[in-house]
Amino acid sequence: xxxxxxxxxxxxxxxxxxxxxxxxxxxxxxxxxxxxxxxxxxxxxxxxxxxxxxxxxxxxxxxxxxxxxxxxxxxxxxxxxxxxxxxxxxxxxxxxxxxxxxxxxxxxxxxxxxxxxxxxxxxxxxxxxxxxxxxxxxxxxxxxxxxxxxxxxxxxxxxxxxxxxxxxxxxxxxxxxxxxxxxxxxxxxxxxxxxxxxxxxxxxxxxxxxxxxxxxxxxxxxxxxxxxxxxxxxxxxxxxxxxxxxxxxxxxxxxxxxxxxxxxxxxxxxxxxxxxxxxxxxxxxxxxxxxxxxxxxxxxxxxxxxxxxxxxxxxxxx
Length: 318
Prior knowledge:
Elements: H1 19-40, E1 43-44, H2 46-49, E2 51-57, H3 64-72, E3 80-84, E4 86-94, H4 102-119, E5 124-131, H5 133-161, H6 164-188, E6 191-192, H7 194-224, H8 230-262, H9 268-295
Parallel strand pairs: 1-6
Antiparallel strand pairs: 2-4, 2-5, 3-4
Helix pairs in contact: 1-6, 1-9, 5-6, 5-7, 6-7, 6-9, 7-8, 7-9, 8-9
């Protein structure tokens, strides 16, 4: 029985010759992501903005204006409504009662529930969350700190394990992956909550895993082919690791695709973020991180020198 090979053994794609196109595309996408995040903003979940969030499922899709009028007439504060998942599910956000007492919060939930059921028989509350302003501020701070420390920690690790060029290229690629995720959520206006922060950290971990495999192969080939042209060496290294990269990305993509389709709306944002992360992480590993090493001036002789008494085979590039 023949083994399935998504990438043939003799694959020899010239990734490096496309590096300037990739750099321009990466810069444009990064600027677009920053612009979208700055102008449209993120649809922060109740985890980050604080308040009372009620998820209501209606038997038939209602008018948002009718639901808003019903809730505003109760005098429980300004409501913010958004369709969530399917047209019949609506996310209702309300300010937390000033007393911040669980009893007062339950009273608001029961009041909204009774009023909506009177006008929309069959409505069901599938989820309620309450976060105070103080807690939401701490969650924002901790979430941002976690992502920043992860990115810088991985860059420093690459610097210490290899050379400073590897650290810089890894930092640039991971920042690109994170910004692409933020831009995606700014454009789609999917809810950005703690689940998405977990997805971003997972994307960083997935991306660095792929980059470490390629960087290890580059360093290995730099020791083996000390006189080889750096462009040819990086192309060789990326092509040698390409079957592993493609197979890993495809299998993860299939698992996340199933999660996106059948995991329900609660996991939809997480699965969408992870799917995007797999695509941009693979792209940045192949076209950004590796090719950037050439622009940073990495040379084979900086890492390896021939050991005395142990001649090694050398491959001379074009």
